[in-house]
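Students often ask why we bother encoding 3D structure as a string. The short answer is that it lets us treat folding as translation between two languages. Here is a chain of 237 residues written in the first language.
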Amino acid sequence: MEYDVLTIGDITLTSRFILGSGKTAKYTPELIRSAVEDAKAEMVSVAIKTLDDEDCVLDYIPEGVRVLPNTLGATNAAEAIEMAHKSRDRGLGNLIKIEIMNDSKYLLPDINETVEAVRVLALEDFIVMPYIYPSLPTGRKLIEYGAAALMPLASPSGSNKGLATGDFIQQFINEFDVPIIVDAGIGRPSQACEAMEMGCDAVMANTALATAGNLQLMAEAFYSAIKAGREAYLSRI
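And here it is in the second language, the structure alphabet:
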């Protein structure tokens, strides 16, 4: 399906799998290699707060793979905006994933601070992709303020519980024209397939690969599942 591309702002991808950055300690060359080669990832999310680490994730990302900087660690809009500026100053471009969490127990995004960060950064020509709980009023506000994509959580980060918020994500798919990228909670290829069959535009995952006993097989399974789910969705439209 070479014609079936994913467009986010002015970025075009043929892959619909994005490697997340939740398990930072697991970001080994093997993990990124397998995500790119076996799961066909064309985008890897990197926490801006790790850019100055001695063993930086950027060192392992192959040429041609898009970096998606994220504001993991930000607890308010001001901190996220500062991180976005740092990322752009470091030459990583205008693409930014907004993650703002001041809840260390459940890691749920702060809605009000996320909306404010998106409002400011979109005015500064960032391509903004906010991580949010799938609330329709929140989604509408974010798109009004210029979000290029929405990244709703499927279930709590790292939980592997799948599409616990599936009904609300379906509302996003039905109502919005921007890409809907499921983020957090996808722990099995079957869950990724289900998300794609619903009509999600892409899936971000990390824990399932980072904790797999056979990384290559898990990455290949995610590729096949996402492809199958996408084809099933396209077959109905």
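Translate back mentally: The longest strand covers residues 127-132. Keep this in mind for the problem set.
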